[in-house]
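Hi W.,

Here's what went into the run:
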Amino acid sequence: MHKLQDLLPVVQQALDAIDYPQAPAELYTPIQYELSLGGKRIRPVLTLMACEMFGCDYHYALDAAVGIEMFHNFTLLHDDVMDKADMRRGKPTVHIRWNENTAILSGDAMQILAYMQVMKSPAAVRDVVCVVFLQTALEICEGQQYDMEFETRQDVREEEYIEMIRLKTAVLLGGALKIGALIAGASDDDARRLYDFGINIGLAFQLRDDYLDVYGDAKTFGKNIGGDILNNKKTYMLINAQRLAQGAERDELIHWLAIDDKPDEKIAAVTALYNRLGVDALCLEKIDTYYAEAMKQLDALSVEKLQTEMLRELAMSLMQRNS
Amino acid sequence: MHKLQDLLPVVQQALDAIDYPQAPAELYTPIQYELSLGGKRIRPVLTLMACEMFGCDYHYALDAAVGIEMFHNFTLLHDDVMDKADMRRGKPTVHIRWNENTAILSGDAMQILAYMQVMKSPAAVRDVVCVVFLQTALEICEGQQYDMEFETRQDVREEEYIEMIRLKTAVLLGGALKIGALIAGASDDDARRLYDFGINIGLAFQLRDDYLDVYGDAKTFGKNIGGDILNNKKTYMLINAQRLAQGAERDELIHWLAIDDKPDEKIAAVTALYNRLGVDALCLEKIDTYYAEAMKQLDALSVEKLQTEMLRELAMSLMQRNS
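Here's what came out:
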């Protein structure tokens, strides 16, 4: 069974080997550009690991893995248009480098190419893999819809927020793993457990992001600390702060949410409020809960514990990252 | 075998019966709205007719037909965003009624729902139907890309234009027919002939649109006459006029292309130029050529001539429309 470091170049090579039509160039070039922006390639690696875990050569899952990464990047492409994001990983987004129409249309083509890849899965499992993939794709759209709706709501509850991040980001991790398992011929129970492992890791991962935005190390985090605070982004931290704050703390929080011209002070003040309200500890606790649930799913798998090592290591490294 | 009038309510009923998830409402409502804007539903009807032509109950092709119509409407949704069109069939477009983000995201979800429908095709033909569908979907993106590129080019040649309309509009007619045939178990040769019939009818249809925009009857056409002329749209008429015009006529054409404040005069002048250059006759000739090729494909099918009657009638009615 291969480690993350062995599988990453496999994934990258497979992505580089995609045979794009030559023309029209301006339809396909932005697709290659979006993929070239990089990324950890976690999702396709999860697919390959899930496949290997059940004793199946990962090559059988490679087309699906590439399709999953292609699809993930398509969602980023369109999300950047909807979020009006100018940069991704330090480079101009597609709608900035080209234009918005190109971003919409190349994204549409990218989605089709993703399905074409997934459709190359072994014939015996093709139908069930496609069902999982399409359902996951639709759920991601649902998550993005909720994310957009939450921007203008002041009353988002924690369970709604969790459901949104489950749909928007966790289901693709779950789906990537489940697809790898199905290709390997895993039982329905094992496929479901791996899916749930993915969901829980995904939720832990996103909450970790919410936490690190406030408490991360700026040097290793790579992004500015407190960006979510400045944007009044409805994260786990803010949602719980709004729920818990009473009296003077409530007024103080409301005050800072209304301010946008004193960034350093805002970040410091809101962070201090988070500390006082204990939402930092709440968030870490929640992360631990999801992580523990993820490990439970791994333990429940019908494979030898040794077979789960790679995934266990990968999950731990995702959790331990300081950035 | 059923006529167009029998199949239309079947298609509409199947569209109305689609089981959309309840939430998030603002993801799915725009999809239903787009479908409710109407349309001739030609494409799904072609799928059903192609199925019946080979002696197969059309119900087997109904899911695919619905998926094809869903996909067609998704392309209209995103096209309206890219073209900045405010109205479709007299009603506000999705990005006007809601907003652009909704149009992008609901379109993305609509594309997924379309694939889910097509994936319900009978298991024995599912793979080959999906391959045709995905390839068609990608080609439509290519056509739209060329269409957008041509807007800013002054040197578009006729063969490029034909290729653009082939990809943007004809392949879906061909694909709809081919899918119906494949579901019915038609031979590869017959499936290919029906596909080519669809391509040729599609090309004839689009050129007919180009012609009617200039020479149609305003009352029956439903759109304003000369809209393409006012927009300097690169149609078959304009491309050939630019190719053929020499000397004074060339100068006159260039003059009118540069004017945008005398609409009635521009339409009259350019129409007169078209008449003098004979591009009206050229266009009608081209339409006849494609139509004749389409009929040749029908005649070459291995089915009884009687089995081709519905399609023959449908093609004739498409050609004879005055609007």
